[in-house]
Amino acid sequence: xxxxxxxxxxxxxxxxxxxxxxxxxxxxxxxxxxxxxxxxxxxxxxxxxxxxxxxxxxxxxxxxxxxxxxxxxxxxxxxxxxxxxxxxxxxxxxxxxxxxxxxxxxxxxxxxxxxxxxxxxxxxxxxxxxxxxxxxxxxxxxxxxxxxxxxxxxxxxxxxxxxxxxxxxxxxxxxxxxxxxxxxxxxxxxxxxxxxxxxxxxxxxxxxxxxxxxxxxxxxxxxxxxxxxxxxxxxxxxxxxxxxxxxxxxxxxxxxxxxxxxxxxxxxxxxxxxxxxxxxxxxxxxxxxxxxxxxxxxxxxxxxxxxxxxxxxxxxxxxxxxxxxxxxxxxxxxxxxxxxxxxxxxxxxxxxxxxxxxxxxxxxxxxxxxxxxxxxxxxxxxxxxxxxxxxxxxxxxxxxxxxxxxxxxxxxxxxxxxxxxxxxxxxxxxxxxxxxxxxxxxxxxxxxxxxxxxxxxxxxxxxxxxxxxxxxxxxxxxxxxxxxxxxxxxxxxxxxxxxxxxxxxxxxxxxxxxxxxxxxxxxxxxxxxxxxxxxxxxxxxxxxxxxxxxxx
Length: 552
Prior knowledge:
19 helices
């Protein structure tokens, strides 16, 4: 099937082109800059010659009609975004001059201070060099592409909207039947106008399919913006934690969904694809577990955020200025609820990849591309696994490491240490709110809470650990080099579900005893973290139990 496509130089559009090719379709892409598009496609492994690139402007109805001649179906992913832009009429699309993006990115950079307003899929300018306004792009562009495709007999015609049209939501779950919102800014009004136009076509029997993505995340974003820009900024500076949450959909899954829609869609469908819904603290916890570096956090009351957005909107009406927070953006952060994706997933026979995989790939790419400081990317940065596994060469480690290694490996310490170290660690852990342990200046440390094998009561144990690349922790039942296995290892064998407190955050985990090749692989790395383990092995006849603690 030959499929007409807009936005191929953008985030969603480029992955859609790749998915169309993989499905055996022949994409024909309307693009402003074929050279730029070729580079974007090459970054995700698509040869430009495999996609028919047609120079043109989606605001030019004649050019659109000519480009879609001979096509069987259409996918419209290009749009202007600007949920954080000024609320006043006639406002600019973006002070950055990046007015276009895939609609799934819209309204998605809620992690202030970064901006969410505009990313470029098309780099569009109207005649005379002036930027077209949002209404012109999102409504006129939609009329030219979606309306033009319907008029030309293409079927189906897939229009990519956004879950923003339903926010603030009317219920605890957004469904395709949820009422549309009443946005305040130009971007929201333009998207709503385009949405109503497309729905009118559907109501008239046109073979139009509407897809509503959530926050789009993944590697190789052509121009950093929206959710990806917000994530980099929050990790690099401060992560605000208001009520509410964010919906995360992998750009690769979204591209696959749109490619499948040209075969599965018959017209009239309205498919939500918000993705995985995370509260802001859970999203921050996920990033922390992947990087191994705790982000700086700031709890923000929902009312304060909404009030600030309202005041800024009012100020922008008096004198337009560029600032990333608006009332609409604040409502997104505070009120977003999960979306009902099951109808879309069933119809498209699609399974979304785990959100952990999506965020990990995104963080890894952000670090590789230079958008995220390697110190904040931690184990997601190039070479980060080694940096996170090995204790940092701090002054304390250089000055006291050799001495503590000798002391900890001494036989007399196996009698004294268990009576002194764990009680001190528990007290320090409580006093510091879970952020500090006695030995963490020398070796990564955590507090493990298990369920007693006999008593069934919670038992807490401070332990040295090795943070691993996948966000798990590896711990050793050394018991200070004594002959018996420590009690906590027996607790885990009977009750694998436990809880880890690591650098101020608490994570539910499942424990698994390592053996064979898996144990042999981690043991040399454990010795680099704490060489004393080798002394313990020489001293005892038992095999030290090694567990991997994986976040649930």
